[in-house]
Amino acid sequence: MENFVVSARKYRPITFDTVVGQGSITNTLKNAIRNNTLAQAFLFCGPRGVGKTTCARIMAKTINCLNPTENMEACNECESCRAFNNNASFNIYELDAASNNSVEDIRSLVDQVRIPPQIGQYKVYIIDEVHMLSAAAFNAFLKTLEEPPAYAKFILATTEKHKIIPTILSRCQIFDFKRITVDDIAKHLAFVAQSEGVAAEPEALNIIAQKADGALRDALSIFDQMVSFSGKNITYKDVIDNLNVLDYDYYFQIVDHILHGNTSDILLILNDIIGKGFEPQHFVSGMGNHLRSLLVCKDPITVQLLEVSEQLKQRYLAQSQTCPLPFLIKALEINNKCDIDYRAANNKRLHLEIALLKICALCSQALNLPTAQAQPVQMPQNRPAQNVNPTVPSGVSTGSTAATTKVSEPVVSAKVPETGIPETSRRVEGPTTAQQPQPTQSVNPPVTSGVSTGSTSAQPVVRPRGTTSSISINKAMQQAEKKSEEKEETWDTPFTQEQLTAAWADFVNRYKNVSPNFAAALGKYTPKLIGTSEIHFSVDNLLFEHDTEGMSALKHHLKQSLHNNQYQLKPEVMERPAEIEAYTDKDKFEKMVEERPYLRTLQTELKLEGDL
Predict the structure, then answer these.
(1) How many CB atoms lie within 10 A of CB 495?
(2) What are the distances in angstroms from CA 125 to CA 90, 110, 150, 306?
(3) Is the pLDDT of residue 181 over 60?
(4) Is residue 98's pLDDT more than 80?
(5) What residue spans of 374-529 are helical by DSSP H?
(6) CA 297 – CA 435 distance, rounded (Å)
């Protein structure tokens, strides 16, 4: 029975041109050989299975070849090449530093360096896993590595460059090997499958390449495993079943159901995935990759970032056209948060289901957005607006220049909040609207026939996304309110002391939730009406004058309640009697005795002296 040789050894590259995915490094090495500019030491570092030791062997074979080709490749015909191919070359030494990491092992290697090569020009020492050498071994190797004989070349290979001491790094030319791309691995697997007479689907080879995580040796090992599992025909289904990989089709189905709002189907698919033994967190990770693939397909420039087969790429392109860009970005945020919080969740399945339902609800809002924005928002019915204004006499105008609206019943444009600060009903216009938005008062008095309300709409209109920003809207509203105040007509309705007291108490009661201190200062004394328009009120201090927002709310409330904007507020500061402050302990005790005389008796009976 013939001995089986794994594909990783059987199809190991033997020339620089057959090395997969490291073109920049192989070109540099060939140019160094051609120009005779070889350093005395090289350090090949990078992930596992990317060709470090392979390139070291090819380089050792090539520099000792007696008849190299014009492309600086070994001829495989000379005595040195034949000895290397038969593992009988005395010019190339390989040392595993993982098992030979002591000072004695390095001293033995240094003794061998003194012997010149028998055939060829160089003696090459390949030290694999060099980071496993002890600190003493590194120090023993320094001098020889820095100034070796002209015929000695050292090639060090490691997967953990950070563990090598800086004095070694400074004596080497460092080559960083990169992870091999999925496309390069898939192409090499197709070549191996063709050489072995194995029929393999492109999607199946692509899954193997992704599972290898940039290591060609791992990919070839998985390929041999799949050949043993399915024989000479490797299918996509066989690969995902054997490697426990979640099928791409699950993600496409879930996104389709999300786009159509089929929450029940989403939960059933998730149950099917968990029932087949897949870890839910793996599904979360795969869902994130799927959404990311849809996102990069939104722009033709970024489609090249997809590392999938051509057939699968077309499916991504087709589905990405049905997904809005804001939805994909927000869905990625939700999925990423679910992935971060997954380990801390007690009910992990519920945690995942909630995340999927959030994404589904998000997509429903995104797809129904134009329809929802086209309809005005209805005023809530659970908190009816309050009408605190007296009747406006016939013929009085509110001062608005907008189109007038004839009404027969009292009109309430917006509700009055509990704080007593009126809100302004707003009409937000798109970018093509030329009319300046006009504000309306929060509580309009009942009007009779022929009275202009000054509002173009009784309900606010929702601003569509992509139009004027909230900052520009606020600025426009402020300008409109200021302009409205300048054009406001005179309200000079007479009011009595009883009406003033009631309006004042109503404001104090409403404003307690906004500024308790300001409300308490106003509620301590009762305002007095002097004449017909002067309102005198007393306060203990003038701190309230710095509360401009509170004073503005007070003036507005009185104007609306009394229907009079010609009144004048006259604050009066009340002088507080001077009080003697107690600073020392004795002063404090004397003040306590004034309130509680028995303390003096207690002091006498207990004979308390000292500071008291």
Answers:
(1) 20
(2) 11, 10, 13, 41
(3) yes
(4) yes
(5) 470-486, 497-511, 516-523
(6) 41
